[in-house]
């Protein structure tokens, strides 16, 4: 039997926005921008740190020489593992390892029963976490809202406390200040079963945000430093608005976004070389007709894929965006915009693809949109994983044995490979007559039904949370309340 | 401004577009060799006397009356004679569909038996006026490049000649190039004669075809007489023909994706050999609709991700072989224009476009091909624009990198009022049905969802768009051919 040699195989589909030369130019653009234009950094201690290592500091403006950037990139770890508090789930943060999840902090929430837009409540954080836990194609958790019915300055801590008990998927948390950043860290330690256990393997990722163009405010940098000090994997990424906070040309926007993240990379690596730091962000354009940041634009898909390639070029993990929409209600627009960005982000190979479930340009969170996108991610995955080509899948024997016009039903080969065909959970494939008999339900009806079914019947991991951890979390929340009350008195 | 002297960045290679690839070249080769094996070992069945005679006088081996096995050498000969380039010219004289590697055109389709009556809201049989309305829609929609009949014509005077009426409905209502479908070779011949009246003659049609013809086969590697009739006539007259074998994973094809690709390729290669033996040089547009199917109802699913994957993969295989190709897109199993129709349309358009399929047809099909929808055509027009925007890639130049602008504006600045923004924001995608207003304005405008905005847009196009009329003399000549056929076939 003859044998095959010199074979290159696409184990997945391949997708690329940039050539090597184009990536190099954008990389050089970032180096030049940080060196010549620099950033505005509202954090004296961080400025001092950068100055000691050779940055040029002029008031709040910090210009960073390229050796600092190269050194920082050299120490960012190629692999980071996040382990769930119950030890059942390991998430790898490494090149081309893709996960989808919701986004943080919209002020509004679509009530999954009344379908009305309303304020986001504490119970919603648990609901979102549990829904994410139930959805097979959602890999990490963010809240889809800002809790409105607790002490305002502690919305971040309550959110984390609710979510981590209702999911074993990694949470990307956020916080207002270093104080609440510490509270969240303490809750995570309680869930991990102690500081040592957490240090061995963290159970969450922190999400922080510089401001475009080229500004890091005090709290963003302060939290970045806290997370670096404690070895907590962190995202340091801006929301860039093309034509408003950054140039209208995509290449310029990416240079700007890249530079803004890079400040977090440099500071985190100076503080703790080897700590995990993730670049990326939301990259889209300002809709000039409505003055709205367009979350459903094809430009978002394109720039997110482009920036992902830059992250891979620099050896950094990537926080990308997809599954979001400018629609105000569950409708085909949301489906079009989400499918487009989901598939682009999947093909790009970004690590944490967030904002799945955003309505209304990020102003409303919707689990309905999330449930729909879960199905789209499943479809995208079929294309993304490509075609397996080997003598068995090529099936020459099978085809020849069956002959022209043949029937492949029920053969051993068919039974084996049929099992790999995608099974829809929301897409309808009935005949018109059957569909009519069952009440002419549209996908919207099915999404609502599935979401409510998850809410009512899916059991999350809450019952497995150790009593000791629950008690500890209650103490942390109580202490935080006291601290914030004191702050209010002072003011 | 900084002074600039002789600035050139050398040895730069850029991606002019986004790049997408499912199969590696080695994987494509494996699939190709496997398809040649299938043609040599098991071959196909040809139910057509003239074709069998042609095969008998070639290097092919014919046994068991109609079982045909083809040596690889004959396949490669046929491929060498297949033009890697053709073009379609609309009746407006514009050579607007260039069939050449990595060039993509989108079109409606195909032959759906029912429509949604926009006046009564009833689902009913498709009529002449429906096909005409869809053609008018295609004429209007900027991202649709060719018109394929959206539906069948149930109200034709003669069921056997309704294909001629499909052609008339399209050609009188759409100035863009067409893809025709036909009941039999008689229909194709009449359509071609009518087209020759428009292009100015048989040779002129060969030089600048007004249409390509759609040749569908539902039984893999079996070549029914009516299918071969059409292929041979197209080969003789130089009519570009879309050969589209349909197959179901694990039903009429192996359940493994690679196996299905092998069978579809073998099927296309045998068709290419038949056309070559008739007359070398015919632009065969290879293709295949390869998806999962309901084995009991024998229904093909139009929205499966397996279809999206195989469409991209076969496109890559045909590109590698240097043959023109087509695939399906913008179609769905949903019964209405809902989130499912949107999702499945995006996925099929996205993958076929990124792969570089030449003709992406079946746009607007609902209900697994049973229903031709005008609303879906308008929706897909917008989806295509979005996908193209992603496919355009990102230009990286001094101007777009904008480093000097970034330095000028500086940290905490704004770009909204900068000339650079004004110069470039016009390149962004601008929505048509998609809404980006903020919540309050959206509420003031009646809280309309996507469908609420889509339907009036469809009505408006139907009311206002009038395509350039076809020359009245030609219309009269065409009608003569049609009525002759109607009478003859009774």
What fraction, in percent, of the residue positions of chain A are helical?
40-55%
Low-confidence stretches of chain B: none
Unreliable segments of chain A (pLDDT under 50, ≥5 consecutive)? Answer: none
Largest sheet of chain A: 7 strands, parallel
Largest interface (CB within 8 Å) is between: A-B, 136 and 137 residues
Strand content of chain B: 5-15%
Describe the protein's architecture and organization:
The complex is a heterodimer of chains A (491) and B (490). By secondary structure, chain A is α/β, with parallel strands linked by helices. Chain A has a domain at 78-242 and 274-384: Trimethylamine methyltransferase-like (TIM Barrel, Alpha-Beta Barrel), CATH 3.20.20.480. Chain A is built from 18 helices and 21 strands. In chain A, the strands form five sheets. Chain A has a seven-stranded parallel β-sheet. In chain A, helix 1 (20-37) packs across helix 10 (298-314) and helix 6 runs antiparallel to helix 18. The N and C termini of chain A lie far apart (84 Å). The mean pLDDT of chain A is 97. With 490 residues, chain B is α/β, with parallel strands linked by helices. In chain B, strands 10, 11, 13, 14 and 15 form a five-stranded parallel β-sheet that branches. Chain B has a four-stranded mixed β-sheet with strand order 3-4-2-12. In chain B, helix 3 packs across helix 9 (257-278) and helix 8 (225-237) crosses helix 9 (257-278). The mean pLDDT of chain B is 96. At the A-B interface, strand 1, helix 1, helix 9, strand 16 and helix 10 of A face strand 1, helix 1, helix 9, helix 10 and helix 11 of B. Strand 1 of chain A pairs antiparallel with strand 1 of chain B, so a sheet runs across the interface.
What topology emerges from the helices and strands here?
The complex is a heterodimer of chains A (about 500) and B (about 500).
Chain A: E1 14-16, H1 20-37, E2 39-41, H2 44-52, E3 56-58, E4 61-63, H3 66-75, E5 80-83, E6 90-93, E7 99-100, E8 108-110, E9 117-119, H4 122-134, H5 155-164, E10 171-173, H6 178-192, H7 195-200, E11 204-208, E12 215-216, H8 218-229, E13 234-236, E14 239-242, H9 250-271, E15 277-280, E16 282-287, E17 292-293, H10 298-314, E18 318-321, H11 332-348, E19 352-354, E20 358-359, E21 364-365, H12 367-384, H13 391-394, H14 396-402, H15 412-418, H16 432-437, H17 443-457, H18 467-490
Parallel strand pairs in A: 2-12, 7-19, 8-21, 10-11, 11-13, 13-15, 14-16, 15-18, 18-19
Antiparallel strand pairs in A: 2-4, 3-4, 5-6, 8-9, 16-17, 20-21
Helix pairs in contact in A: 1-9, 1-10, 3-9, 4-5, 5-6, 6-18, 8-9, 9-10, 10-11, 11-12, 12-17
Chain B: E1 19-21, H1 25-41, E2 44-46, H2 49-56, E3 61-63, E4 67-69, H3 72-80, E5 85-88, E6 97-100, E7 105-108, E8 114-116, E9 123-125, H4 128-140, H5 162-173, E10 178-181, H6 185-199, H7 202-207, E11 211-217, E12 222-223, H8 225-237, E13 241-248, H9 257-278, E14 284-285, E15 289-291, E16 293-294, E17 299-300, H10 305-321, E18 326-328, H11 339-355, E19 359-363, E20 365-366, E21 371-372, H12 374-391, H13 398-401, H14 403-409, H15 419-424, H16 439-444, H17 450-464, H18 472-488
Parallel strand pairs in B: 2-12, 7-19, 10-11, 11-13, 13-14, 13-15, 18-19
Antiparallel strand pairs in B: 2-4, 3-4, 5-6, 8-9, 16-17, 20-21
Helix pairs in contact in B: 1-9, 3-9, 4-5, 5-18, 6-18, 8-9, 9-10, 10-11, 11-12, 12-17
């Amino acid at each position: 039997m003859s044998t095959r040699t010199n074979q290159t195989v696409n184990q997945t589909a391949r997708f690329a926005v940039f050539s090597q030369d184009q990536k190099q130019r954008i990389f050089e653009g970032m180096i030049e921008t940080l060196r010549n234009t620099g950033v505005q950094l509202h954090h004296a201690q961080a400025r001092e740190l950068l100055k000691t290592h050779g940055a040029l500091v002029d008031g709040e403006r910090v210009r960073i020489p390229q050796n600092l950037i190269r050194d920082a990139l050299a120490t960012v770890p190629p692999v980071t593992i996040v382990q769930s508090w119950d030890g059942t789930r390991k998430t790898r943060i490494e090149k081309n390892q893709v996960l989808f999840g919701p986004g943080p902090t919209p002020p509004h929430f679509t009530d999954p029963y009344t379908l009305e837009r309303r304020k986001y409540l504490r119970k919603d954080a648990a609901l979102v976490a549990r829904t994410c836990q139930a959805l097979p194609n959602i890999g990490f958790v963010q809240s889809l809202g800002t809790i409105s019915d607790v002490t305002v300055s502690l919305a971040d801590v309550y959110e984390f406390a609710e979510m981590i008990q209702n999911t074993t998927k990694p949470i990307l948390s956020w916080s207002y200040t270093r104080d609440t950043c510490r509270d969240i860290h303490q809750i995570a330690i309680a869930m991990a079963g102690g500081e040592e256990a957490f240090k061995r393997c963290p159970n969450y990722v922190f999400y922080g945000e510089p401001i475009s163009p080229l500004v890091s405010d005090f709290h963003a940098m302060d939290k970045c430093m806290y997370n670096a000090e404690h070895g907590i994997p962190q995202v340091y990424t801006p929301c860039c608005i093309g034509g408003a906070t950054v140039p209208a040309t995509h290449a310029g926007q990416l240079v700007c976004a890249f530079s803004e993240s890079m400040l977090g990379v440099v500071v985190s690596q100076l503080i703790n070389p080897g700590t995990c730091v993730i670049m990326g962000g939301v990259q889209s354009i300002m809709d000039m007709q409505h003055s709205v940041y367009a979350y459903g634009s094809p430009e978002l898909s394109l720039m997110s894929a482009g920036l992902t390639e830059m992250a891979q070029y620099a050896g950094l993990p990537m926080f990308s965006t997809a599954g979001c929409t400018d629609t105000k209600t569950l409708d085909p627009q949301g489906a079009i915009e989400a499918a487009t960005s989901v598939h682009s982000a999947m093909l790009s190979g970004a690590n944490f693809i967030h904002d799945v479930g955003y309505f209304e340009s990020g102003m409303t969170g919707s689990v309905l949109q999330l449930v729909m996108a879960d199905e789209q991610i499943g479809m995208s995955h079929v294309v993304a994983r490509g075609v397996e080509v080997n003598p068995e899948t090529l099936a020459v024997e099978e085809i020849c044995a069956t002959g022209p016009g043949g029937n492949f039903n029920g053969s051993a080969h068919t039974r084996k490979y049929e099992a790999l065909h995608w099974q829809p959970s929301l897409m309808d494939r009935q005949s018109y007559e059957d569909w009519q008999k069952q009440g002419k339900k549209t996908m919207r009806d099915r999404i609502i039904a599935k979401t409510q079914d998850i809410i009512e019947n899916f059991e999350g991991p809450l019952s497995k949370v150790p009593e000791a951890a629950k008690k500890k979390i209650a103490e942390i929340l109580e202490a935080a309340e006291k601290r914030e009350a004191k702050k209010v008195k002072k003011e | 401004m900084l002074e600039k002297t002789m600035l050139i960045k050398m040895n730069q290679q850029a991606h002019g577009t986004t790049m997408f690839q499912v199969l590696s070249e080695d994987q494509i080769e494996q699939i190709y060799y496997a398809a040649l094996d299938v043609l040599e070992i098991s071959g196909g069945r040809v139910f057509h006397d003239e074709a069998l005679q042609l095969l008998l006088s070639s290097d092919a081996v014919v046994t068991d009356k109609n079982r045909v096995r083809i040596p690889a050498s004959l396949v490669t000969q046929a491929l060498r004679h297949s033009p890697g380039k053709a073009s379609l010219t609309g009746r407006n004289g514009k050579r607007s569909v260039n069939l050449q590697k990595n060039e993509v055109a989108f079109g409606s389709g195909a032959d759906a038996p029912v429509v949604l009556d926009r006046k009564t809201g009833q689902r009913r049989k498709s009529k002449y006026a429906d096909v005409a309305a869809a053609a008018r829609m295609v004429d209007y929609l900027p991202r649709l490049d060719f018109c394929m009949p959206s539906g069948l014509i149930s109200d034709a005077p003669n069921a056997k000649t309704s294909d001629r009426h499909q052609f008339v409905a399209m050609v009188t209502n759409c100035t863009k190039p067409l893809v025709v479908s036909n009941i039999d070779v008689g229909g194709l011949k009449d359509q071609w004669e009518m087209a020759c009246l428009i292009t100015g003659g048989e040779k002129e049609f060969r030089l600048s075809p007004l249409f390509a013809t759609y040749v569908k086969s539902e039984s893999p590697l079996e070549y029914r007489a009516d299918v071969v009739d059409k292929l041979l006539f197209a080969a003789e007259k130089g009519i570009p023909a879309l050969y589209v074998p349909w197959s179901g994973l694990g039903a009429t094809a192996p359940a493994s994706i690679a196996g299905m690709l092998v069978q579809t390729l073998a099927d296309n290669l045998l068709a290419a050999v038949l056309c070559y033996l008739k007359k070398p040089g015919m632009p065969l547009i290879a293709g295949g609709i390869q998806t999962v199917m309901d084995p009991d109802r024998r229904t093909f699913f139009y929205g499966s991700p397996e279809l999206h994957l195989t469409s991209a993969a076969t496109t890559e295989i045909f590109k590698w072989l240097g043959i023109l190709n087509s695939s399906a897109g913008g179609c769905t199993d949903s019964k209405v224009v809902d989130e499912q129709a949107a999702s499945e349309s995006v996925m099929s358009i996205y993958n076929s476009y990124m792969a570089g399929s030449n003709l992406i047809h079946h746009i607007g099909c609902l209900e697994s091909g049973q229903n031709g929808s005008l609303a879906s055509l308008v929706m897909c027009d917008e989806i295509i624009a979005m996908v193209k925007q992603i496919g355009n890639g990102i230009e990286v130049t001094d101007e777009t990198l904008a480093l000097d602008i970034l330095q000028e504006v500086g940290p905490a600045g704004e770009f909204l009022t900068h000339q650079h923004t004004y110069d470039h924001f016009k390149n962004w995608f601008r929505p048509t049905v998609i809404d980006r207003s903020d919540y309050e304005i959206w509420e003031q405008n009646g809280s309309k969802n996507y469908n609420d905005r889509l339907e009036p847009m469809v009505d408006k196009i139907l009311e206002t768009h009038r395509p350039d009329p076809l020359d009245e003399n030609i219309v009269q000549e065409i009608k003569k051919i049609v009525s002759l056929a109607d009478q003859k076939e009774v």
